[in-house]
Amino acid sequence: ENMANVNSTTANTPTVILCDWEMSLVQSSGKDGGYFLGFPIACALCHAASGRPTKAFEIQRATVLFWESYSKILRDPKSNHTERDMCQVYRSMIAWTGICLFPTYYLMKLFAD
Q1: How many CA atoms lie within 13 A of 18 on its CB side?
Q2: Rounded distance between C-alpha atoms, residue 94 and residue 71, angstroms
Q3: What is the pTM of this model?
Q4: Sign of CA dihedral 75, 81, 83, 84
Q5: DSSP 60-107
Q6: What does the pLDDT average to over 39-46?
Q7: 42: phi then psi, degrees, rounded to nearest 5
Q8: Are 14 and 21 in contact (CB under 8 A)?
């Protein structure tokens, strides 16, 4: 079945499904978000370096929207996450994003010039 129609009442009502892989993989909190953010941030950097700042800012806004949506789910009262937990998830997510970007931008010297 087309994923756009899963759990939809009509074919014209698309559904977006975000799977939180932390439930099925043993890993640090924020790793999934960090891996997710690596690619859009790399794209934003490439757009900025290519003289397309508008595109870079659009991607940056999307990454902020991702964190707002992701953290809203984690802040659900049933989850019992404290503000300290949220800070740890955010720090971990940023660290994993750096781990994703480090090989490309430093080891491969993508932006060496």
Answers
A1: 11
A2: 14
A3: 0.66
A4: negative
A5: HHHHHHHHHHHHHHHT-GGG---HHHHHHHHHHHHHHHHHHHHIIIII
A6: 89
A7: -60, -40
A8: no
